[in-house]
Amino acid sequence: MTNHTKAGRLIKRQKLSTRLTHGIWAICLFFLLLSGLQIFNAHSALYWGDQVGFTYDNDIVTLEGFPGWMTIPSGQDLATGRVVHFFFAWIFITTLFIWLIASLRNRHLSKDLLPTRKDVENFVPDIRDHLKLKLVHAVRYSPLQKLAYGGVLFVLFPLIILTGLSMSPGMNAVLPWLPELFGGRQSARTIHFIVMALLVGFFVVHMAMIILAGPLNELRSIITGRFRLPPRKRTESENV
Amino acid sequence: MFNRRSLLKAALASAASIPLAGCSAFDFLRERDNAMRQFMISINNLTYSAQRLLLSADQLAPEFTEADILQDQHPNGTTEPDTEDYVALQDNNFADYKLQVDGLVERPASLSLEAIRALPSRTQITRHDCVEGWSCIAKWHGAPLAQILDSVGVKPEAKYVVFHCFDAIEKSLSGEILYYESIDLTDARHPQTILAYAMNDKPLPIENGAPLRVRVERQLGYKMAKYIKRIELVADYAAIGEGNGSYWADRGYEWYAGI
């Protein structure tokens, strides 16, 4: 088994709940993004405040609207865009709750995502490694990985849900302070859009990192849960 | 033998083809009777149940102050009804206008504007949210629908209030489609649900729905029918329009527009 030793140890890295919720989110975010752009196209400008200035200026940006190949459905169809968007929003939020409960129970949160003192110490070296595109594979996530995943799960996901709910007139009656927290309903709509762009940015970096870190090993880990660690010379004999 | 590597390669290849498929790949969802669309709508109906669960019957939509009124209410949909009966009423400044209230009621009524203006009224500064994405704050003044419903006596089997309007929202060779909307009795009896005849301290302008429009502050703009001609109480809305309870619901939008 020399070959196996050279390739490093194969460990069980991702639990089934992590892999399933990750897959469901990927599908949800794909449909939420493209149906969201469809909804945006019905009024392709962003504003700050509670209302849209028709006789005064409070727009931040006015766009032409996104092309058909970027929207679901492909033609202008706000009604269908809303059906798709709200459906995947329900699936997305439900999955987030399931993930949160599972991750508290199986200690995915405390073991894998919670930053430790060691992460703080390794933070700068980890940035240096990433800048050199030297990606370290270990049993645990690196400080930057924890920051990125934690930022998506605990900042961007809650923000995009709360700004989305801020646009619902029904939810505004339930939680009148919610849209005001973001500076008004139109500000919430603008932040919803910005968080979408940040999530797209995360996706691009996420894909780049997978390619750099070895796409087959990374994909195997998120599909089957098994992840191959890099060879460790000192322990080579132990593994034979 | 089961080969994990080839499986991963296949997964990678199919994942890469998703963006290439383009979004016309999902255009089948536009078909109203598509099974997947129907399934999505059945899940989306959770929104109605969830909001009814979270909202008490009297819980108010946020109200704003005079300082928040920065412009006239942006008009949408029909802004100048040209149906014969409407134009005739308009020519006489709605002096001959009568609101019909009928359907599943004990005492069908025909109310003049004068009678409606004489009823106890409510004033509210609220934000109007259009399904397209824009919002606009204005001051609305009118008679709570609840007291009109009480005065005609709603029969126990009635579940919805249907608004039949004067304006032809659609004109085609097959004829005109007059705007129609409906709300449940919870929203109909909500304190902020008023038949508004004034806006921003002036009589309701034509473009905003004169002589009467309904305000349903916990839902989107298309629920707030303008140019109301008749209010009908029904047990279900299957017989109205194409059966989905509203002009826009018949065109694929949600009947419950709390989101």
In short:
Chain A is mainly alpha-helical and 240 residues long.
What does this structure look like?
- The complex is a heterodimer of chains A (240) and B (259).
- Chain A has 240 residues and is mainly α.
- Chain A is built from 11 helices and 4 strands, in the order H-E-H-E-E-H-H-H-H-H-H-H-H-E-H.
- In chain A, helix 2 packs antiparallel against helix 3 (78-105) and helix 9 (185-213) packs across helix 10 (215-223).
- The longest helix of chain A has 29 residues, at 185-213.
- The radius of gyration of chain A is 21 Å and the shape is elongated.
- The N and C termini of chain A lie close together (6 Å).
- In chain B, 24% of the residues lie in helices and 27% in strands.
- At the A-B interface, helix 2, helix 3, helix 7, helix 9 and helix 10 of A face helix 1, helix 2, helix 3 and strand 4 of B.
Q: Assign the structural class of chain B, choosing from mainly alpha, mainly beta, alpha/beta, alpha+beta, or little secondary structure.
A: alpha+beta
Helix coverage percent of residues of chain A?
A: 55-70%
Strand order of the largest sheet of chain B: 2-1-10-5-6
Strand share of the residues of chain B? 25-35%
* Rg of Cα set of chain A: 21 Å
Span between N and C termini of chain A?
Answer: 6 Å
Secondary-structure class of chain A: mainly alpha
Count interface residues per chain for the largest interface. A-B, 52 and 57 residues
Helicity range of the residues of chain B?
10-25%
Largest sheet of chain A: 2 strands, antiparallel
What is the topology?
The complex is a heterodimer of chains A (240) and B (259).
Chain A lengths: L1 H6 L2 E3 L3 H26 L3 E3 L11 E4 L15 H28 L2 H6 L3 H15 L11 H24 L2 H6 L2 H5 L3 H29 L1 H9 L2 E3 L7 H4 L1
Antiparallel strand pairs in A: 1-4, 2-3
Chain B lengths: L3 H18 L13 H10 L1 H9 L29 H8 L6 E6 L5 E4 H6 L3 E8 L5 E10 H8 L7 E13 L2 E10 H4 L5 E6 L2 E2 L9 E3 L12 E7 L25
Parallel strand pairs in B: 1-10
Antiparallel strand pairs in B: 1-2, 3-4, 4-7, 5-6, 5-10, 7-8, 7-9
